[in-house]
Amino acid sequence: xxxxxxxxxxxxxxxxxxxxxxxxxxxxxxxxxxxxxxxxxxxxxxxxxxxxxxxxxxxxxxxxxxxxxxxxxxxxxxxxxxxxxxxxxxxxxxxxxxxxxxxxxxxxxxxxxxxxxxxxxxxxxxxxxxxxxxxxxxxxxxxxxxxxxxxxxxxxxxxxxxxxxxxxxxxxxxxxxxxxxxxxxxxxxxxxxxxxxxxxxxxxxxxxxxxxxxxxxxxxxxxxxxxxxxxxxxxxxxxxxxxxxxxxxxxxxxx
Length: 255
Description:
single chain; mainly alpha; 13 helices; about 0% strand; elongated
């Protein structure tokens, strides 16, 4: 069997779930969708690992695989004629990579898995320098559904000693899952938050004054948002929410 050929031909097909990525990225659908896709692409992961075990230049081998995936993504974007189409496809591809492709590769737990993810991140950043992809495994993402991905709010509340089911977290999660999710641009806003929030929390946590930073986030953004929701000023909350994500991304996001 030609493991190299099977693997490199299978890499672009990892993106085939892009159209259904957002639709299936929901608490009740994600686990089943992930397992189905993982089994579907298992022959590619087997070939990747087998080839990695026997090839001499392992680094070049993984570089070739990563480039095949990134180049396939480039072709998909370049096939779009309008700018808004390109932006939408780029967003869908980033979501696909973050919640399916990287977790599937890491789920395989082969010797090639983590090094391959690192190579893909390098290739993706080279082709799409404005993107902010991070890699997480399936367990981390699936557990996130139980917190509904309120990374920043959760980190702030934990700093104040508030439990995961506190009033503030519950209110903000409900707001995101109902009002934000129902907006035409809601999916894009939430997807951006998924993309950058874990890294923001990570890097705030590395600061000596992280409690003061989180207190500032609470006073400047979260507490006013909660008051707006309580007074049914939902659109005002959305604007402040977007302002928070943009400001924290600029100040604390790092690759």
